[in-house]
Amino acid sequence: MLRTRRRESDRAYVALVDLLYTSLKTVSVIALASGAVGAIIAIRTGDPWMWVLAALATVIGVARCAKIFAYDLLVRPTPKTPQTAARWERWYEVGSYVFAGLLGIMVARALSFDDAYGHMLGVGMIMCYASGLAARTSVRPRISLITGGLLLAPFVIAALARLDPYYAAAAAFIGFYFFSYVEFVRFVYGTLRTSLDNREALERLTRTDPLTGLANRLALDEALAEDAASGQPASVLCFDLDRFKAVNDTMGHAAGDELLRQVAARVGGLVGPRDLLARQGGDEFVVLRRGPEDPRALGEAIVEALAHPFVLPGGRAEIGASVGIAAAPTPEAPARLLVAQADAALYTAKAEGRGRVCGWPPRSATRDEAPAETATAAA
Fold this sequence. Notes:
Layout: H1 10-20, H2 24-45, H3 48-75, H4 82-111, H5 116-137, H6 141-161, H7 165-206, H8 217-230, E1 234-241, H9 244-251, H10 253-268, E2 276-281, E3 284-290, H11 295-307, E4 310-312, E5 315-317, E6 321-327, H12 335-351, E7 357-359, H13 372-378
Parallel strand pairs: 6-7
Antiparallel strand pairs: 1-3, 1-6, 2-3, 4-5
Helix pairs in contact: 1-4, 2-3, 2-5, 3-4, 4-5, 4-6, 5-6, 5-7, 6-7, 9-10, 12-13
């Protein structure tokens, strides 16, 4: 059995299952071929059981085609969770095992008769299917290998049971073929995994602040848009550091960079697992607070946490922070409007003496007033 060397990410898993359901043409062809080959062998041998096996294989094959078509129509165009992907993978897995087992039994049954033409047709059918199977199902190695075993093992057993050296040689050939089949599956799966992992790593880099390891502005914008579209309750907290420029000027930029990393670590310990902490640039940070919880408590916790001294390469530094808060926009409102409102509340907090938490609209403004940033975001 092929073992994966590292666990797949949820995103990679969903993508691989999606690829599994691109085999409609292959499954359609083998469904028709299995019925035709089974019927020819049944006619030549007069075996009623071969008719039954051919009919079952055709029915299962058509059912698999219908399932793949349903996936293409209903599931592929929509966002998928790992749970959804797992459910569809199980459907594919069961159908693949049953169909391959039926074909294997059909060929083994054909070998119980002295009909060389039937043997040739049966072996040709399973070899053609095995080749397509390896190419199409290598994205899920377990399914590919078990299906291949169910398809080929009955022929090997039936060929050896004939006690004929030529059939024994054919059985050995199939065994060697299965070894190359396993290696092919390993190669294809490994190549796909490497490609998907590299793509995910690149996407993480484009959405990550290199200094702090937090989400960057692009990742924040995407998260805001997703939350606005979902209509789930959320709020935004904008905060920046008081006296950050003084730290840079007196201790150097290396100390300033270390300060930003320590701020990210402190605030990161305060936010929830569903929340998103992002750095917009400079000493400006944003927290996307998901859920109906009051964001003011988190804002006050941030102010308190950042009021404690920081130990930096150039000595100790005491800074502080001011926080602005805004509630989630409606799905019709621009997602960036929320950040603009929180940013306006932040400037009000700083104007009132720093080290404060201020919500939008601030006490000095009415709900009909909008800051310049808000107007820009809405434009």
